[in-house]
């Protein structure tokens, strides 16, 4: 049940800049796969460089009968390292410790660790996962302490699981856990201790967990001391990852595919704090090149996620079947980067869904028993929120019909309860749905984008509305919203973006007979509401039709 591999890691004559490990976990589908139906994770393992040489044995432990198959690749990236890793050592052997064993120092007792005299920087790495009923599902503060003083580094071993990019899963995957989530990487906490120790000296290190004793709580504990040489470059920024657009790495699946702002991760791999970065970015094969200047404060060894603006949807257009996004650091702190080898990155990506803007379409939400937990927004390419809804009632259908100018939009649906619209563990919550729908030729309603209701914390969906005719002068956003559906006594109507227009509303039954009509005259507010009394209508299906300045709007509802 444990998989043991023997592999050879070659020691190259040229010093590596970075080591990475590429891992695939296989039972989860819908991702790029080196094995069968796998998900790709990428980890920077440069800190382990001193032991990634020669013949090594790797043991995949604790999987039992449910151990997934793994394809593991080690990538060797040539170049000059940010700083040489002189040593990495376990402070204590990796092991499991019960709560009382850790608190009493039976395990992970204070240890004196000698420090290399030729070292310049020192860092602690800590990866902790909790297990047992009270270890896995109870948040606790853990600590690393130097030289017997107060707790120097405290950190909460707790990880939110409802935003896990691998979803839906079986079991209790949405439940937050101590340092880990099903199918996700363990959190790693890092602490620079350079200013608190002396090269050539000795440091006493202690690990522990705070709080009163609790039975059925144990922790898998891995703590290392990493020893470095000096920074190779005083000024050095590294473009580490592209989070969006990206169709390869599972960590970023919730924010992809994308037509909105790219996101890149930049790390300060030099010895000087970074206050500004100039970047350029483009889609390969598209002549449109964008530039952006980031300003902020990025100390050595720190990372930052940078959102890059996109002026128009044409940025993403390419004639090639495989889309490639590229980004590059042009300058750092207004001058040339000391190390240009790590200034560029690229990613392959899938394009966001393109929808012909020739029919009305709408967001349809059916809440469960916890309606107030849910909300959503729609943003355009420059980040402006053009549609939002919150404070929803329980067990209610909301239909928001929208008229949008062409362009790129991002739909984000949020759940404050972090348990989705449907989750097997909470049957008392009931079930809900969220989807995009449209009328085909104005008569037949079809969903064209649905979302699995077991989504945890929420969903995100980028889409492009492509105009089929030349854009009109009036590029306002308009929306007609009706709820609840089904309705009993009252039907609520909300209008957004109709200021200055006259509107007429009518209701018809399935036979086309008009059962209600009201002319409301000119609308003066950007957000306008009205109610229609349904109490005298028999039960059945009806159509609500609204005529505005330039078009007719239609939706259906049920009276019970």
Q: What can you tell me about this protein's structure?
A:
By secondary structure, this protein is mainly beta. Helix content is 2%, strand content 49%. It contains 2 helices and 37 strands. The strands form 9 sheets. Strands 29-28-23-26-31-32-35 form a 7-stranded antiparallel beta sheet, with no helix packed on it. Strands 6, 7, 9, 12 and 14 form a 5-stranded antiparallel beta sheet that branches. A hairpin with a 5-residue loop joins strand 17 and strand 18. The longest helix has 5 residues. The protein is globular and about 90 Å long. The N terminus is likely disordered.
Kindly list the characteristics that best describe this protein.
mainly beta, 2% helix, five-stranded antiparallel β-sheet, 37 strands, seven-stranded antiparallel β-sheet, 560 residues
């Amino acid at each position: 049940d444990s998989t043991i591999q023997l592999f050879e890691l070659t020691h190259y004559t040229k010093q590596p800049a970075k080591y990475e490990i590429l891992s695939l976990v296989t039972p989860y589908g819908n991702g790029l796969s080196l094995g069968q139906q796998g998900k790709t994770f990428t980890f920077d393992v440069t800190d382990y460089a001193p032991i990634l040489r020669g013949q090594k044995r790797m043991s995949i432990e604790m999987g039992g009968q449910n151990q997934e198959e793994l394809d593991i690749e080690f990538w060797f990236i040539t170049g000059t390292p940010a700083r040489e890793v002189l040593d990495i050592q376990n402070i204590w052997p990796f092991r499991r410790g019960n709560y009382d064993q850790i608190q009493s120092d039976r395990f992970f007792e204070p240890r004196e660790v000698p420090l290399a005299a030729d070292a310049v920087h020192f860092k602690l790495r800590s990866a902790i996962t909790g297990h047992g009923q009270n270890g896995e599902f109870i948040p606790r503060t853990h600590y690393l302490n130097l030289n017997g003083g107060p707790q120097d580094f405290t950190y909460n071993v707790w990880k939110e699981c409802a935003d896990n990019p691998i979803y839906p899963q079986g079991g209790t995957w949405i439940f937050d856990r101590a340092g880990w989530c099903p199918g996700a990487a363990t959190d790693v906490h890092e602490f620079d201790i350079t200013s608190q120790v002396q090269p050539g000296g000795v440091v006493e290190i202690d690990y522990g967990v705070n709080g009163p004793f609790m039975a059925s709580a144990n922790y898998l504990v891995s703590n290392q001391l990493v020893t470095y040489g000096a920074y190779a470059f005083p000024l050095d920024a590294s473009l580490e990852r592209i989070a969006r657009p990206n169709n390869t790495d599972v960590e970023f699946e919730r924010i992809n595919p994308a037509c909105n702002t790219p996101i890149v991760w930049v790390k300060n791999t030099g010895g000087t704090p970074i206050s500004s970065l100039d970047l350029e970015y483009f889609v390969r094969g598209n002549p449109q090149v964008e530039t952006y200047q980031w300003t902020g404060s990025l100390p050595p060894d720190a990372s930052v996620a940078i959102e890059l603006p996109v002026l128009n949807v044409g940025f993403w257009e390419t004639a090639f079947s495989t889309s490639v996004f590229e980004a590059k650091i042009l300058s750092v702190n207004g001058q040339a980067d000391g190390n240009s080898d790590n200034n560029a990155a690229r990613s392959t990506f899938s394009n966001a869904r393109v929808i012909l803007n020739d029919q009305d379409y709408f967001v349809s939400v059916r809440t469960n028993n916890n309606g107030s937990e849910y909300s959503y927004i729609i943003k355009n390419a420059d980040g402006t929120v053009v549609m939002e809804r919150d404070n929803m009632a329980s067990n209610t259908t909301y239909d928001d019909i929208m008229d949008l100018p062409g362009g790129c939009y991002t739909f984000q649906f949020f759940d404050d309860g972090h348990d989705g619209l449907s989750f097997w563990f909470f049957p008392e919550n009931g079930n809900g749905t969220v989807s995009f729908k449209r009328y085909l030729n104005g008569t037949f309603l079809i969903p064209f984008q649905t979302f699995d209701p077991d989504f945890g914390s929420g969903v995100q969906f980028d889409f492009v509305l492509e105009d089929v005719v030349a854009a009109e002068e009036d590029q306002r956003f308009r929306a007609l919203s009706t709820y609840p559906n089904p309705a009993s006594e009252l039907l609520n109507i909300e209008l957004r973006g109709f200021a200055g227009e006259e509107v007429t509303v009518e209701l018809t039954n399935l036979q086309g007979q008009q059962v209600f009509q009201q002319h409301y005259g000119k609308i003066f507010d950007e957000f306008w509401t009205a109610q229609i009394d349904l109490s005298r209508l028999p039960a059945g299906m009806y159509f609500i039709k609204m005529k505005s300045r330039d078009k007719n709007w239609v939706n259906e509802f049920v009276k019970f």
